Amino acid sequence: MELTKQVYAQTKAFPSHELYGLTSQIQRAAVSIPTNIAEGAGRSTNKDLCHFLSFSIGSAYELETELSLAKEFEYISADVYEDLHLQLIEVQKMLYGLINKHQNINDGK
What pTM, to 2 d.p., does this model score? Predict the structure, then answer.
């Protein structure tokens, strides 16, 4: 959720013509990461949780691409991009860890 808050703070400065374009896409991808985690956690099986965690990973990769575009368009600085990107990599690692943990539970390991 911290990453999502930081993404929102950065997108406030994006050009107004991007409001319904890249700004919206970045914000939706950022919000999708924790909301899919929450939805999966509310499901009754580990298989369902893993399914929603995989959606979160997809959103994380989508966000990674969109942040890269924002840097290329000079909507965010290289330093801001690097900070957000490092946080995003940590989120991706945590998601993969959670999936592996819960898949092992499904497999009886």
Answer: 0.90
